[in-house]
Each structure stands twice: as C-alpha cells, then as structure tokens.
Amino acid sequence: METLTAKDLTLSYGEDIIIDDLNITIPKGEITVLIGGNGCGKSTLLRSMARLLKPKEGNVILEGGDIAKMPTKEVAKKLAILPQGPVSPEGLSVYDLVKQGRHPYKGMFKKWSQEDENAVMDALTSTNMVDLKDRAVDSLSGGQRQRAWIAMTLAQKTDTILLDEPTTYLDMTHQIEILDLLFELNERDGRTVVMVLHDLNLACRYAHHIVAIKDKKVYAQGRPEAVINCDLVHDVFQMKCDVTYDPMFGTPMCIPHGRGRCLIKSAVEEAKRNQVQANTVLN
User: Where in this chain does the record put each ABC transporter domain (predicted)?
Assistant: First the structure.
C-alpha cells in the first residue's frame, strides 16, 4: 500500500533542472529514508512532496489525490513537514510552538477546543516535552529543540510526516534520541515517516525503505538489505567501501575506504617486526 507517489516528476529552480522525470513510491506505515550525494535533490524532492514546490512537470499523489488540486488545509491534515533548521520567534514557549500544529483545524470562528488541547498535550507527552512546555524554545538544547518541533508536527495529527535532515548539527546522543523517537512513533502509531539522512549506516538501521537519488532520478529503492551494496555506494557517493552487517542490528553497515590510523595494519607491521627480530636472534 502506498501513501505518497511521484509520477514523472520534474522539479526546477528557474531553468535549473534538479529532479528529472522521477518516479517514486512511499510505502504506507513505514519509515522511508532518502539518500544521495550533496546537491542531488533530496530536499527539493521532499519539498515537492509537501506541496512547497510546484512541479515543472508530473504529479505528486497523496492518498489517491493530486496534491496540487487539494485545499491547503486538507493537505495539512494529511501530511506534516519539518524543514531543516527551523527557527522560532525569540522567547516563544514550547507549548505555544506546539499549538501552531493545530492551525489546519482552526477556522475564522472556531475557538480553541478540548480536542485541540488534547492533541497538544498528546504531542508533548509523545516527545517527552511536558516538563519543558513553559520553556522558551531558544533556551533548549539542540535535541530538546528538535523534539519540540517534532511535537508541533505531531499536533497536526497527520498520518504522514516528512523531515529534512532531522539530525543535522546534533551530536551522536541526540541523533539516536531523535531517530529512536521517530521509530517509536512509527511502531506505536503506524505513522508514515519520510526523512532525508546523510549517515548511511543510521539510514540502514532505521529505514524500512531506502530511496537513493542520483543524476536527478531514482537510482535504486527498496529494503536496505536489498539495495545497499558496494556498487551503490560507489555509484551514488563516488566512494569505495566494504559493506558488512551491523553486529547489533543485522542491517547493512558501510565501512568507507580512505586514509586514517589503521590499528589492524599497525598490528600486522608490529608482528612482522617482531618476527624479523626473532629470526635475527636465532641466526
């Protein structure tokens, strides 16, 4: 079953074609991760799927309907997007930020309801932000701030969430914290999650479905264990590597080639030196 589909999609900024005649299917109720080199069009594709960028050609289909023909509020009730590096007004509290997620449900004469309040509190609870709801967003740590923004998208009560590089600028601890949160939302609520990630190993660990973008098109898409291999990494990222399996999760794990301090090589060379010294003594 699919929730989002791009058909013959061409995207551009002016005359500069970023995505060309691309076709993609996002599985419903799963985590899909978009991967590819810098500037390949991942974020542009995500913006188009959220109707933030009008296609030059082709269509984006959301739950069976052409997203371009849907009323804005209808789209916002089905799909939420968290762009890269969002910024809130200075001094805005977490609670007030999360309240913004209820905007699609507000009308000119519709007052704040108990349903709205419940949605906000559910979102704060899901992201472990209840105790921080009165704090200013700009006073939070990077991980806390990202959870606050995710809470805002959850308050929209959409079945599909798009996130553009949600772990950017976060340290390792907060990266795992955010990805664990998104994984839990998918597992518990069956939400469809689509995100752009740069860390290929984390993409393989958390994704049910991976889409690799190269030369303005889909290079490959499918289960990480089916599509991630040395050839793909070389072709998409221009990098030589070995692909093994994560010993904890069994998912593909990329070990890039390159220069660096190699303990294995050092140990071999040390063993050779010891053998030479031993032979010298014996002789």
Answer: 4-240
Contact 131/78 with Cβ under 8 angstroms? no
The beta strand positions in the chain, using DSSP E, are 2-13, 16-27, 31-35, 57-62, 65-66, 79-82, 160-164, 192-196, 209-214, 217-222, 241-245, 252-256
User: Do residues 125 and 152 touch, judged by C-beta distance below 8 A?
Assistant: no
Residue 85's pLDDT band, with cuts at 50, 70 and 90, is confident
Q: Please tell me the distance from the alpha carbon of residue 186 to that of residue 191, in angstroms, as a whole number.
A: 5
The pLDDT of residue 108 is above 70? no
CA distance linking residue 200 with residue 224, whole number of Å:
10
Q: Report yes or no: 27 and 208 within 8 Å, Cβ to Cβ.
A: yes
Collapsing DSSP states into helix, strand and coil, what is residue 76? Answer: helix
Say if residues 48 and 11 touch (Cβ distance below 8 Å): yes
Residue 73: name the closest of 108, 105, 111 by CA.
105
When mean pLDDT is compared across 141-150, 186-195, 274-283, the lowest value belongs to 274-283
Between CA 150 and CA 158 the distance in angstroms is 12
Element (H, E) at 172: helix 172-189
State pTM to two decimals: 0.89
Q: Can you read off the two tokens belonging to residue 278?
A: 């031993």
Choose among 29, 17, 26: nearest CA to 49: 26
Q: What is the pLDDT of residue 3?
A: 80
CA distances (Å), origin 174, targets 36, 83, 187: 23, 18, 20
Inter-residue contact 213 to 41 (CB < 8 Å): yes
